[in-house]
Automatic annotation (TrEMBL):
Protein name, as recorded: SRPBCC domain-containing protein
Family listed: Belongs to the AHA1 family.
Activator of Hsp90 ATPase homologue 1/2-like C-terminal domain location: 22-159
Signal peptide start-end: none
Classification of source organism: Bacteria, Bacillati, Actinomycetota, Actinomycetes, Mycobacteriales
Top-level taxon of origin: Bacteria
SUPFAM superfamilies: Bet v1-like (SSF55961)
Length: 161
């Protein structure tokens, strides 16, 4: 399993996940740069993603929905704020309605994903920062740690194929 560490810090409003992959940085970057690959790992296995819009450039947007086992759809978006290919990208991540308009009733996070060479492979560090401790606690209660970990753990199978 690639995920090696998960920490949440209510004082600093952060959730940090660290994962190690036996693949070069450029290969892990491609998982996020290619919408068809991203679909295979964004969301837990029981909630596969469909990427609708994908513009991984500063100011760009990524929209998607995940489909649950009962056919229920859950939409979200990324607003891309910075890109340093293949080392990192930053984005605002939020929940959305079915037309991809932000859902103000659910938390928004600011995210920095970094990819660095580590032991012949890649160490990915995923840091999400929330607006408040309540917002972080809300996503923790929604199962974000389990969901994100199971999603990230799908990357090994993708890069092996």
């Amino acid at each position: 399993m690639p995920v090696t560490d998960v920490r949440h810090d209510l004082d600093n409003l952060t959730l940090t996940i660290v994962a190690d992959f036996a693949a070069p940085v450029e290969r892990i970057w491609q998982v996020y740069a290619d919408p068809r690959q991203l679909e295979k790992i964004w969301g837990p296995p029981s909630y596969p993603a469909t990427v609708v819009e994908h513009d991984l450039t500063p100011g760009g947007r990524m929209t998607y929905f995940m489909t649950g086992p009962e056919g229920d759809k859950h939409a979200g978006y990324w607003q891309i704020t910075a890109v340093d290919e293949p080392a990192s990208f930053s984005f605002v991540d939020g929940f959305a309605d079915q037309d991809f308009n932000p859902n103000p009733a659910l938390p928004v996070s600011t995210n920095v994903y970094t990819f660095a060479e580590h032991d012949g492979g890649t160490r990915a560090t995923y840091v999400s920062t929330f607006e408040s401790a309540d917002a972080l606690q809300q996503v923790l209660d929604m199962g974000v740690v389990e969901g994100a970990s199971s999603a990230i753990n799908q990357i090994d199978e993708l890069i092996a194929s």
